[in-house]
Amino acid sequence: MALKFAPSGYRCLRTARGVHGLRLFTTSPPAYYKNVIVSKPDPAVALITLNRPNALNALNAAHFDDISSALREADEDPTIGAMVITGSDKAFAAGADIKEMKDKTFAEAYMSNFLANWEVIAKLRKPVIAAVSGYALGGGLELALQADILLAAPSAKLGQPEINLGVIPGGGGTQRLARLIGKSRTMEMVLTGRIIDAEEAERWGLVNKVVREESGVVDAAIKLAREVASKSRVAVVAGKEAVNAAFELSLSEGLRFERRLFHSLFATEDQKEGMTAFVEKRKPKWTHS
């Protein structure tokens, strides 16, 4: 069953004390997430908004549980074709909650496999677009780096300042940054804790685009998500899987994997519809099957 989103969207949920996000279930009445807002700005797009404004969206365990649950539910919803994750104008997420982790021991961190659950976005099958405004630091940047496409507002400030706390990134920062911007630039960010602005992030290839339009980065992300969601969802999931395989496989193995996924799409109704529509010079009517 499809998730039951609030038809009026998230803006109507703002109160004098902040914003309360709907938690959306398929089999029970709507409840509330404390730390995220879930809305549906388009019939096929889910918008997940981080909501700890008093802590600049710092990521503690409860916050991350809400983010994980909301994203997984949207990923499993057959009416959703793409997701957008964002924060506030001031901060996408200013990092992990240091108060929560400062007294952890090695044994506690090691035996609980601390931060292993931060891979939630990377494991989703449907595309995720991150819309970043303000601070995306430490764990906040690591969260954004898991997205398939990353758009930034001119106000975005991105960095891995963990070195200033006597630690290093632990949620994928060293690995994903190195694959995106290379060894030397990653070393600079990780070893100095330097924070870069949106313009530099765009030049380095850390973000897809800096959105300078007045409508803003969230609207741009929703528009892009809407375009992705308008395609065959079977093909979109296959395309995402193939691109991600490039980071795990050798070139020869990756080419073989891509070819097999390409071949498998000839067993779908959408392949027949898409190619028939092209020959007949009309728009395809996808059934996502």
UniProtKB/TrEMBL annotation:
One of its GO terms (molecular function) is enoyl-CoA hydratase activity. The keyword Lipid biosynthesis does not apply. Pfam families: ECH_1. Keywords: Fatty acid metabolism, Lipid metabolism, Lyase. GO terms for biological process: fatty acid beta-oxidation. InterPro entries: ClpP/crotonase-like_dom_sf, Enoyl-CoA_hyd/isom_CS, Enoyl-CoA_hydra/iso, Enoyl-CoA_hydra_C. Its EC number is 4.2.1.17. One of its GO terms (cellular component) is mitochondrion. It is an enzyme of class 4 (lyase). SUPFAM superfamilies: ClpP/crotonase. Belongs to the enoyl-CoA hydratase/isomerase family. This is Probable enoyl-CoA hydratase, mitochondrial. It comes from Pisolithus tinctorius Marx 270.
